[in-house]
Specification:
5 helices, elongated
Length: 95
């Protein structure tokens, strides 16, 4: 698996987790701590994404989600996969 990039997976997890935390803040609980964590995760995802001039890092980053047929599902299933860790953590915190 030469086209696998761990920063790509971490960037997606942090991006979708930040979106889920923002949703959770407005829909479920009004805790400012959730927004602070969401902003931190969003900044982390921005840092992990390589810039356009870093072609070698960018190529492996882009190829991570185009490996055979497993990573070609539509985007609406990706948000569920990548927001799963934060949903699990919030579930354990509340109950």
């Amino acid at each position: 698996m030469t086209n696998f990039s761990l920063p790509a997976i971490l960037a997606c997890i942090s991006f979708y987790s930040s979106l889920y935390l923002i949703y959770y803040y407005f829909a479920q609980q009004q805790q400012p701590f959730l927004l602070i964590i969401a902003v931190i995760l969003f900044i982390l995802s921005f840092i992990l994404i390589p810039s356009a001039d870093q072609q070698s890092k960018r190529r492996t980053f882009n190829n991570t989600f185009h490996h055979e047929n497993f990573f070609t599902y539509p985007l609406f299933t990706w948000w569920r996969l990548f927001s799963m860790p934060i949903r699990f953590i919030l579930l354990k915190m509340l109950y």
